[in-house]
TrEMBL record:
Keywords, comma-separated and alphabetical: Cell inner membrane, Cell membrane, Membrane, Transmembrane, Transmembrane helix, Transport
Name of the featured protein: Bcr/CflA family efflux transporter
Transmembrane segment boundaries: 12-36, 56-72, 84-103, 109-130, 142-164, 170-190, 222-241, 256-275, 287-309, 315-336, 348-366, 378-396
Keyword Amino-acid biosynthesis: no
UniProt xrefs under PANTHER family: MAJOR FACILITATOR SUPERFAMILY (PTHR23502), POLYAMINE TRANSPORTER 2-RELATED (PTHR23502:SF132)
Length: 411
């Protein structure tokens, strides 16, 4: 199938469209990162037995998204973008209310999984809305603008969560999520028309689903980057889930946590920006392999530092080390996804859902395993980085033996 060109004339001006799509895609990051300052507080309120239960508030969110992406990927191609987005936001709101009414950890986690399932709708369908209206360089330009806004959310969300905790309670972090969901859904419904006309919608086919799944798991240029992405993101998710415990629990930084988190998130954003400047010149295969080698070197050095300081290096050393390491991680996220998607051709929509789901499941398993060993020091985090970054490098080396050739020819 030839590459899709622009089919629908944009109904909104570019600034409004970018703002709306950025808000839509940022709801995922907001739902995760604004929770971080409140994890221990929520855990205590819900009767959590240990810190690992509180970490599940973050890690299980990605499990819900893994299922949600598989549902909403085909759904938005079958029923249209508007219906998928509104349904997803509605489910997200229901999950938010469940969290607000929770009085035990089990109910809280159920609410978080429902939230995550729902937020997959706007995440998947908003990308489709952009693709429907823009193609080639125009789409790249729009996505660049959206990513510039998106990068700010992980930096600011913990500060917002801390601010809500300071003036109210953890309950009202969920109130904030509810207000954002209602505002976003109303804005989208009023201003953005459907971009996938009925004539172009495709009925869901189990046969196509299984064909796409079989292609993904049997073709090295697809499954390799997918598995590597799961390993890399799993190592990072272990840190993300435990970040509040690490900085507020181990280091006792208090409200400075949100600023430390923002600093480390900036490293990933900086890497994403630099990658956009160099990837067309150097190629995503070369950038990915250099970044993976850099990640492994970082993990070796970081684990050595942890050993030297008996498990807990000075705060400034930990922050500096993670800043450098997360720069390499930031180079990997977009490139590994692009590499996995490159051979998919006309199964791109369903393939994206399967790849996103599979890599998320792997990441959750990795993160929960690593975090289960986290007690009083950083050894589990450092070891998790080393093991899974190294595994990702090995997988990429084995699956992309001829990176100089287009991925289609490798399949």
């Amino acid at each position: 199938m030839s590459q899709q060109t622009t089919n629908v004339k944009p109904a909104l001006g570019l600034p409004e469209f970018i703002a709306l799509m950025a808000l839509m895609t940022s709801l995922v990051a907001l739902s995760i990162d604004a929770m971080l300052p409140a994890l221990d507080t929520i855990g205590a309120a819900m009767g959590a037995q240990d810190i690992h239960e509180s970490h599940l508030i973050v890690s299980l969110f990605f499990a819900g998204m893994a299922v949600g992406q598989l549902f909403f990927g085909p759904y938005c191609d079958t029923r249209g973008r508007r219906e998928a987005i509104i349904l997803g936001l509605t489910i997200f709101a229901v999950g938010t209310v469940v969290c607000m009414l929770a009085d035990n950890m089990q109910t809280m986690l159920i609410g978080r999984v429902i939230q995550a399932f729902g937020v997959s709708g706007p995440r998947i369908a908003s990308t489709a809305v952009i693709r429907d209206q823009f193609a080639g360089e125009a789409m790249a330009r729009v996505m660049s603008f959206i990513m510039m806004v998106f990068i700010l959310v992980p930096m600011l969300a913990p500060m917002v969560g801390q601010w809500v905790l300071n003036i109210a309670s953890w309950f009202h972090i969920f109130t904030l999520f509810l207000l954002v969901a209602v505002f976003t859904g109303t804005w989208f419904w009023i201003r953005q028309p459907e971009t996938l006309p009925a004539s172009r919608r495709k009925p869901f086919s189990w046969a196509q689903f299984f064909r796409s799944s079989l292609f993904i798991v049997t073709h090295k240029p697809v499954i390799g980057p997918t598995l590597a992405m799961g390993c890399v993101f799993g190592g990072f998710l272990a840190y993300l889930s435990a970040s509040q415990t690490i900085f507020q629990g181990f280091y006792g930084v208090g409200e400075m946590f949100s600023y430390i988190f923002a600093t480390l998130a900036f490293s990933i954003g900086l890497a994403s920006f630099i990658n956009s400047k160099i990837v067309m010149r150097l190629g995503m295969y070369r950038v990915t392999q250099v970044a993976l080698i850099g990640s492994v070197v970082f993990a070796v050095i970081f684990l050595g530092i942890i050993e030297v300081f008996d498990g807990l290096p000075p705060l400034v050393v930990t922050i500096g080390s993670l800043f450098i390491g997360f720069f390499f991680v930031g180079l990997l996220f977009g490139n590994l996804n692009a590499m996995a998607m490159h051979p998919l051709g006309d199964m791109a929509g369903l393939g994206a859902a399967i790849i996103g789901s599979l890599s998320s499941i792997i990441a959750v398993l990795v993160a929960t395993t690593v975090d289960s060993y986290l007690t009083v020091d950083l050894f589990p985090i450092g070891a998790g980085f080393l093991v899974f970054f190294t595994l990702a490098l090995i997988i990429i080396r084995m699956s992309l033996q001829r990176p100089d050739k287009p991925a289609e020819s490798l399949s």
